[in-house]
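Task: encode each sequence below as structure tokens.

Item 1
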Amino acid sequence: MLRTVFSSSFSRGALLALLALATLPGAAAQQPIFGVDPTVESGWTKLLRNPEVSSTFRVRAAKTSYRAGEELILEVDFRIQQAPVEWYLEGVHSENVPLRFESSTDSIELLGLAEGPQGKVVPDPLLDGKKVEKHFGEVTFRQKARVRGDAAGGKLDFEIKVRGQSCKEGSCDMIRGVGHALAFEITADAAAAAAEPARRAAASQAQAAESTSATDGAAAPVETGFFSFLVFCFLGGLAMLLLPCIWPMIPITVSYFTKQSENRRGGATSLALIYGFGIVATYALIGLVTTVWLGPKAAQDFATHPILNLAIGVLFVVFALSFFGMFELQVPAFLQERLNKVTGGGGGGRGAGKGRIVGTVLLGAMFTVTSFACSAPVMASIWAIGFSTGIAWMVPLGMAVAAVAVSLPFVILALFPALMKAMPRSGGWMNTVKAFLGFVELAAALKFFSNADLKWDWQVLTWPVFMAMWAAIAFGTTLYLFGLIKLYHDDPSGQVGAPRMTFGLVTGTFGLYLLMGMFTAEPMPDFVTSFVPPKYYGRPHAVEGELEWIESWDEVQRVAAAEGKPIFLDFTGVNCTNCRLVEESVFPHVEKELGNFVLGRLFTDAGAKQDEYDAMKVALGSYGLPYYVILAPDGKTKLASSEYERSVPVYRRFLERGLEAARSGKGAAPQAEKSPVSQAPQANETAPREVPPPTHGESAASGELVWYDDLAQAREVAQRTGKRVFLDFTGNYCIPCKAMEKKVFPEAAVQEQFQRYVLVKLITDDVKVPGSQAKQDYLRSINGGSEQVPVYAVEDASGKLIEKLGGKQDLQVFVDFLKRSAG
């Protein structure tokens, strides 16, 4: 009985250790923060300016005095109103408007993101699937901070400011830096002050590394999500099981565990769990060592660094050749001999149990090292994709997850040994798996070669060349699977079974699909477009009669001045996947409209003027990519702009509106004194996102409905036409606003009533857009001091408010409001 109890408890303990190890790399990125004895706190303060919402928050610290250079914890408590109307607060990890804290003084630095409980996470289809984290009721976040080493001694007064968004059913309200005052007594420290310059220099370098790749996809879906990456790693681990240096070892190793358990305490399951622990530990250690060796900046530079991409591409080719059987990757002899010596010992007596545990862990490590010849290509793929996410700790985490998949069969078969009889025996099918993975490695290598080619502007791997090479790889895979091509390790007399024929048909069909894509104007699907270079890359050198894109701002200005045409600027990046998606899925359908402009394509991550173009993009209203701006022929007057938008009708209206503004001679910010909104540089400019195309049969490109983003200009039109002005106060991150714009606005009854108004859209929640503060002030002036959106208002041409309606509305209520207010 004692032996049975020991074995059972030991198995559970080892299983918990195995699962815990797989989560260590991720846990390392989120270190727990100790609790706070709240001896210093600010009082409860209103969170929102809306007088009807009672949500409050406060800030607490552990003590009243700190030494220069000392770290501290700030606890921020929130009480979110739950009655009579339920509100929620977006959390730290929300993909819409994440909660953030700021310090009002340089003497107190906030370190990293705040930590707290995970809220309710809801993917929202109105935000293109972004996950919104919601907190209800009371919640506390802990923010790690530090007193600067060179902080002066004495009393320090400062504020902790909160930024984010709080919503209820039907409307949202931005939290705009609401502050809480704290007072600390600071003790100066000469040693900390002397070390502060070096510490701040190191922190600045780390911050610069973190922002290196922040421009790609700032306004669009993330290319590789966290969970999809983990799934890829797990599937990669399962794929490694099929390789010839791993599959045959499974029954041999499990049989060894079973035999060892016959005469020794601790069953086969316990030994298998310890063995799996060794595998996971070794994989995670490999990922951790490579991450530390390359440094944190590598994770940020990987996606755009041409030398790194070129090196990874070469490495993938080497692995592909190894899979084809041209040579075998060998583990260094000294390492294998050392492991054999360590794991070869046995013995009994006291300490034998501990020695057997250590020996079994080392056996798992030796298995990982000796199987490197087969597993290295898959491990390299996980490494490359992990680094391309821009998060360094993803690499060891991905390695650990893949290792869990590899170790699972050892544990399962140790629990159920009878299953080994059902396992397919080793044979030629394993060589087929290796060769198939070799073709996959070749295709993956082309992506990395293409990244380097784009960065250096070699124009070798252009769209047709890349597509042709991918098609050739697909056809080569088909020929191999059909048995028409033999590799070094294949049996000349081997038979081609149904599985090989099926996979061969799939790869052959994919090759034909790629060839067809070379000769059609229709855009390819996203899973192809996100990997291949843009269609325009290299084509101006070989194709005539198509739209001409100019990649120099000086040349764009010269041509526009000579031809008198407005300017369309495409701010893009050589490795910006979302830019490719717009260029391939939208631009071919709006070539007629684009032909009315002088077209400029300015790269913000490559070329001698990348910094200049990036600063120009920011000055025009956006920090992210892609970004599209329409300017007057003088190159100085901004007419309209758009970020990521893949709806062709919406994008066409954006171009038509910009062209109409250019022909009318009106810029983005006409001079007017009638509204504070008109005094800002023409705002928003996310107009192409404004209203979905009509659903009742009207041509979305016909331009019947024109949305203005400048109130003064709209009032001028209202005076000429005798119409009233409809104002839509909305937000880029407001879910109820999106619900109205995507579900209510396109309805035929609403579209009919919109014809009676001059339409204005004012986005109030994007601080990056010039004039956003004026829009917020105007919203508060007609909304009782609240910035809650959406708000719909109707005024006459003189600016007199007729009626307003707040929050998300039912269709009939909204239509009645429009009918009643039109006059």
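Item 2
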Amino acid sequence: MMLIPQKKLKAISFGLLSPDVIRKISVGSVITPDTYEEDGTPIDTGPMSLRLGTIDPTQKCKTCGNRVGQCPGHFGHIELAKPVIHVGFVKIIYQLLQSTCCKCGRLLLPQKDVDRIKKIMKERPRLWAIIKSRVVTKVLKKAMKAMECPHCGEEQVKVRLERPTTFYEKTKSGERKITPDVIRTRLEKIPDEDYEVLGFNPKTSRPEWMVLTVLPVPPVTVRPSITLESGLRSEDDLTHKIVDIIRINERLKEQIDMGAPMAIIEELWDLLQYHVTTYFDNEVSGIPPARHRSGRVLRTLAQRLKGKEGRFRSSLSGKRVDFSARTVISPDPNLSINEVGVPIEVAKILTIPEKVTPWNIDELRELVIRGPYEHPGANYIIRPDGRRIDLRYVKDRKAVAEALAPGYIVERHIRDGDIALFNRQPSLHRMSIMAHRVKVLPYKTFRLNLCVCPPYNADFDGDEMNLHIPQSEEARAEALTLMLVEQQILSPRYGGPIIGGTQDYILGAFLLSQKCTFLSEEEVQRLLFLADVTELPEPAIIKPKKLWTGKQVISALLPKGLNYTLRASACRKCGECKKFDCPYDAYVVVANGELVAGVIDKKSIGAGEPESLLHRIIKDFGIGKGSWFLDRAFKVFLNYAFFHGFTMNLDDVVLPVEVIDEIRRMLRGAEVKVEELIEKYKRGELEPMPGKTLEETLETLIQEVLSNARDSVGKLAAQYLKPASNALMMARSGSRGSMLNLTQMAANVGQQTVRGERILRGYFERTLPHF
């Protein structure tokens, strides 16, 4: 038996294919633009050659001898008549041309600087890995400014890029185009040591390889042709581009061999460059896209990889797999944060394989008898010999159920308590996919507790999410231990809770914790019942009627031993904090699990608030207590807001008449100032600001005047908004909106800007392009 040495992978590095490697992996040169002979067989030197693989079930691959399905396909190559620039590396080529000597190819940096960087690379590789990008940026910036080569003394000329792939150098006699073969020669001169200083690895990618002399031709399996109903063949878009490249390349070779004038050669060379560029990326700005005869834009290499429909997002990250479901999500505040509501129709289709044992055989027999159409039931039975029985087609399910024995596997419906993975795309961080316990519910949408929306970045305007069912005990155990929602409450990004209160939860907590909130015995019992609290605290007021404060209800939900202080969102940041005497009740104090003072708002229970009340509970008492608080307390807050009632109307943002008159006077004053600035500009009396033109100065000054007017008007309006208005309560508690929103509604929206400028008029004196 041969021993295979084991090696540990340290890293993966990406590089460029050299011309020699392209020729080595190729099975032959492709030189004929035609695809098939008259009898329908592929031409041996054409782009559909059988040496490149086979897509016809009746034919074998000429390279590996396999048929369709077994043959992976093989690369060919095209020897280009003239070098062409790879459009993907234009930016790097431009930087290299600007930062290296046009004569000797050395980096335009003194040798002592190069040696110092090389010393760090050799002696402190870990440090180099950290500072590499910053050092390379500085090196390029310094080298590009050099007017003379510090190594050979050659005076440097400036290089200009005309996108996408044309370079010019500015000489004393004028601008001169740099052809790709000259560019390649210059890049060949760059020594390996200088190339390393620029952050590249010369073993895996030399700069001259960015200018192509050999073009790889992908296997036919990557670009299969299709046969239409009429019997005609339709070739793939990549094949069309390869045919164009071969045709122009062969014409260019012929013209060079015939000694044609340079003008004709350059024209064909530019055309070859165009076809190679659009072969790689057909959406390059500055050149027209390659099109089919019908006018349809060709879908070339870049278009197959990037974008929503590309290989990465659509195929590799699409999560279109077995044992999964996808539908629209909707909110359900009655669910635990660890639960996901699954439609009963989905629950009948998704299954979990359960092995039959002496302990569960009776239960599984019952599920088999129920069958695939009644929940909870079963869809399939797998016998020990691997035979699969589909219960949809079994007439006597009782007989099949009786035949069950240990060792059989029953694929049963998912049911309450099963573990499922829930995912919303785009999956941007680890909390984009979390484990939930299934709760089978009627109707056709997935249901989700609102507190869990922030990590998924989910809302309920039509978002869809994916559900995956782990199929093994190991997968379920891992999901339960590592991925359960309660394990993800604290964000790895900033340490604070990413799962927490939003909108109605915060508003309910704010209303319940106010000083003026008193509750009857019936109301307190209803709220505490929701939180599974069985002990009623002593009433705060006994006569004339027993009353409890909202703070007492919240205290019953807090763990004993919790001590905590915080300044709430309602804090106005007064000059001197009055603490317990705060007129806004913004100084939050929890002593031994009792809310002594302060209102509970966004700062205390909001999602994404570090050092909040929720955060402290998790740090001091663990994830379990934090999860309990989220489930029970938030249910209480929402229920209180529901029964208390809350609405907003126009009266909340209506100001007194005298305040409106004052606002109009302030706005008129701002208009007069702007008019004066415009007049000063017209008379030529306006002084330009440093680094700005007169027009830019005028625009800046106008924006400054209008911004100051908006702020002044907003401050005035904020003073006269009704203190007890519901709109103001939402802004103060942090549940929704801000003071800016309210003052914009009540007084003045203010000058709107787009990219730092006022909105420009359209072609016909319009502020918007549509109206």
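Check on item 2: The mean pLDDT is 84. Residues 650-758 form a domain with the Topoisomerase I; Chain A, domain 4 fold (CATH 1.10.132.30).
End of task.
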